[in-house]
Design a protein that fits this description.
The complex is a heterodimer. Chain A is an alpha/beta fold. In chain A, the strands form two sheets. A six-stranded mixed sheet of chain A has the order 6-7-8-3-9-10, sandwiched between helices. In chain A, α5 crosses α6. Chain A is globular. By secondary structure, chain B is an alpha/beta fold. Chain B has a five-stranded mixed sheet with strand order 7-6-8-5-9. In chain B, strands 3-10-4 form a three-stranded antiparallel sheet, with helices on both faces. The two termini of chain B are 30 Å apart. Classes of the chains: A alpha/beta, B alpha/beta.
Chain lengths: 258, 518
């Protein structure tokens, strides 16, 4: 069997000196090239779990391995340069141009200047932004454009793994759907491994191959959307039924049925 | 008037250089201390509170007191360190001024730097961590540039405060634009006071504008403006320091340091001593405006080489004796005791006395029928006593009050100049005058007799620091002054400086005294 791209082994994290756990005893494998969505209500521990992968949060218990190698050795900053990280707040550096923002990780890695310039142009095209936008400041962009830049910045150093924390959560529904589909296409084209936290089941079902459901810090189950729908765990079944129920109600309202 | 302005301009290069040097160094040191502390405080809430509280506490100490406090502190430190490192820290002049002003500059920088660093958008911080920056890369590439405009606002405030407060460093013997202000206030030379204020204000405004240019440049991420502002600051600082540096390199180094307390007579005598030393070919610097308590210790510790003090002051305040002894014996006793206890040499009395004395307006004394302090006692409950800033806390006042049972309706303290004004304006009925003061005769004041001898005598005496005791040049230059300045001469010299019409500088009054020696 293939070594998983990401292996989480009995991860636990407490923010209050082990009185309560935000994440408790979660073990989870993500295969290379997979697109996994982490879903669950607020406070389920999705973001905390995601951030233990690139050590933005250090777990109190358990171990994370990438391609079979543990991540805990070495400085976390160096580790993070090997990941793409995209989050709801985007966090473009306001004192840098779009191009400088995209170039940041290659620059930290010491790429040659010529290669960086070429890569920035390539990435702007990849996320569907005109090359001229490279000279703009982040505050001259719309919300959707900003997150496109955020994705380009995360992809810049060609990381094999993308970690996304509610990446489209702050966008309007149309932009959100567009950008979600655009990203899924990139995932397939670049052969990425993606873990995406979302509270939106519909988005999870539409984008991900597999869905991991969390509740109160624990992992309830991981499987394809269809298999989860048939789960005998009532929490999972209820959660998974929600998008379809919602879609049916929407369709009914639009057709004038009660 | 024009002569005063000309005199003020002549003194400007030295005063400006001293002022700029101490302000710039204090600001640079303040930045060097505050910025790392702010980074630490921004990252750790446990550091933030104590750091800010301490800086605020420093700010609540009046700046004049803060400067004065560094003198005994450095003296103690120097005494403690001498056996360890073999170096004597100068407790007077540049060092105490630098340290006090540095502390003073820290609060605005610390406060705005912490606000600037903690105010960076958390999403930007998360992104910086997410793309793989180390903490120091995050600080230099992200946090520092984003906080810079806010921090610069604090630096501007600190610069304006520091340049303003640096005028006070005159009181601990650091040459600054405050020399004009303090000397001017004492001698009622308003041209000097205004000149000092204006020069310090212009300096502060110029620094503020240049720092403002950097602040605006940092806000707009405009490197050209930042460079322009920085270049302006550096060029301005160098231009102010250049004349002093050039003369410092060219001329003989200041060999002798002459001290002066904070009134006209002291300024004149310091100028007289300085001129004599210069005439002998030595380099001289004068540190004036020092308080009575500071000046003797400065001499004893070698920060000063020579100054003029008064026997009664030394007897009661320095040596802590209660009763007075007859003048001739007192000077002899003092000579022995100062030598034995401090190694300080009393070269000899100048020949006049500047005693504390109670004085009233002549007509008022006649109306009340008061000729002595004993006559005054029954009237005291209806009268207001005006004193200089020291008198009421000195042992002489306690002794006087005890001997005659004095109890005034009110007691008010003034700087000496304003004390005489208050007497003229009727805000005070009796003042603690100085017997060598030219204004006693000029204002027609009656000096009240002291039949019980409660006030000691105050013969002016030249004191020499322990390290200059065997300095032949110094002794030779000053020996001719011993016993040669009588009270009439001194009163006249004092009046030249203190009067409103045809006002002269202490240097001119010193020249007058010098001419009488021949």
């Amino acid at each position: 069997m293939d070594v998983p791209a990401i292996a989480l082994d009995r991860i636990g994290k407490s923010f209050d000196g082990r009185r309560t756990f935000a994440v408790r005893d979660v073990s989870l494998d993500v295969a290379r090239g997979a697109f996994l969505a982490l879903v669950g209500g607020s406070g389920a521990g999705k973001s905390t779990l995601l951030k233990t992968i690139n050590r933005l949060i250090e777990p109190d218990e358990g171990a994370v391995s990438l391609d079979g190698r543990p991540v805990m050795a070495g400085p976390p900053a160096l580790l993070r340069r090997g990941f793409g990280y995209v989050f709801q707040g985007v966090g473009l550096f306001p004192h840098m141009t779009v191009a400088e923002n995209i170039a940041i990780t290659p620059r930290l890695l010491g790429w040659p200047q010529g290669e960086i310039v070429a890569r920035v142009d390539e990435l702007l095209a990849l996320v569907g932004l005109p090359a001229a936008y490279g000279a703009r400041r982040p505050d001259a962009l719309s919300g959707g454009q900003r997150q496109r830049v955020g994705i380009a910045r995360a992809l810049a150093a060609r990381p094999p793994v993308m970690l996304m924390d509610e990446p489209f959560g702050a966008l309007d529904p149309l932009t959100r759907a567009d950008l979600g589909q655009a990203y899924r296409a990139l995932h397939d084209r670049l052969g990425l491994t993606t873990v995406m936290v979302t509270h939106d089941l519909q988005e999870a079902v539409l984008l991900a191959d597999r869905i991991a459901v969390m509740k109160e810090g624990r992992l309830l189950g991981v499987d394809t959307p269809a298999a989860l729908l048939a789960s005998d765990n009532p929490d999972i079944a209820a959660l998974m039924a929600a998008p379809r129920r919602m879609a049916e109600r929407v369709a009914a309202r639009l057709e004038g049925r009660p | 008037m024009n002569a005063q302005i000309a005199a003020a301009w002549r003194a400007l290069p030295g005063a400006l250089a001293g002022h700029v040097l101490v302000s710039a160094c204090a600001l640079a040191l303040g930045l060097a201390l505050s910025l790392p502390l702010a980074v630490l405080a921004a990252r750790h809430a446990r550091v933030r509170w104590p750091a800010l509280a301490l800086a605020s506490l420093v700010q609540t100490v009046p700046s004049l007191a803060l400067l004065a406090l560094f003198y005994p502190l450095l003296l103690a430190l120097s005494a403690a360190l001498r056996p360890l490192i073999g170096v004597v820290l100068p407790a007077l002049g540049f060092l105490p001024a630098l340290l006090a002003l540095t502390l003073y500059s820290m609060l605005p920088i610390l406060r705005t730097a912490i606000a600037g660093l903690t105010g960076v958008d958390p999403a930007v911080i998360e992104a910086a961590d997410g793309v793989g920056m180390t903490p120091s890369q995050r600080l230099w590439r992200i946090e520092a540039p984003l906080a810079a405009p806010v921090v610069m606002a604090g630096v501007r405030t600190a610069a304006v405060w520091t340049i303003g407060a640096a005028t006070l460093s005159t009181t601990v013997g650091q040459t600054s634009l405050g020399d004009y202000i303090f000397a001017g206030l004492q001698t009622e030379n308003w041209v000097f006071v205004l000149f000092g204020c204006a020069a310090s204000a212009i300096l502060a405004l110029a620094a503020d504008q240049l720092l403002g240019l950097i602040e605006a440049g940092a806000g707009a991420r405009d490197r050209r403006r930042i460079a322009l502002g920085a270049a302006g600051l550096i060029a301005g600082t160098l231009a102010c320091l250049a004349p002093a540096a050039a003369s410092g390199l060219g001329a003989a180094p200041a060999r002798y340091v002459v001290g002066a307390k904070n009134f006209s007579e002291q300024f004149t005598l310091a100028a007289l001593i300085g001129d004599r030393l210069k005439a002998s070919g030595a380099g001289v610097s004068v540190r004036q405006g020092l308080g009575s308590a500071v000046i003797f210790r400065a001499l004893a510790s070698g920060d000063l080489d020579v100054y003029v003090d008064y026997s009664g002051t030394l007897w009661t305040n320095v040596l802590g004796h209660a009763g007075a002894s007859p003048p001739a014996e007192m000077v002899e006793d003092l000579k022995q005791e100062l030598k034995a206890r401090y190694g300080v040499e009393l070269l000899g009395p100048l020949g006049f006395e500047n005693a504390y004395a109670l004085a009233m307006k002549g007509d008022r004394a006649r109306t009340l029928g008061v000729a002595s302090i004993a006559d005054l006692a029954p009237h005291a409950p209806d009268l207001t006593l005006g004193s200089d800033l020291e008198f009421l806390s000195r042992p002489e006042w306690a002794s006087l009050r005890g001997a005659y049972g004095l109890s005034f309706k009110a007691q008010r303290s003034f700087s000496p100049t304003f004390m005489y004004r208050a007497l003229q304006d009727g805000e005070a009925d009796v003042v603690s005058a100085f017997s060598s003061d030219g204004r006693i005769a000029a204002d027609g004041l009656t000096v009240l007799a002291d039949p019980k001898g409660a006030l000691p005598s105050y013969d002016a005496v030249i004191l020499i620091s322990p390290r200059r005791v065997n300095d032949a040049r110094l002794r030779q230059a000053l020996q001719p002054l011993i016993g040669r300045i009588d009270v009439q001469a001194m009163r006249q010299a004092n009046l030249m400086v203190d009067r409103d019409q045809d006002k002269q500088t202490p240097a001119q009054a010193a020249a007058f005294l010098e001419s009488r020696l021949r």
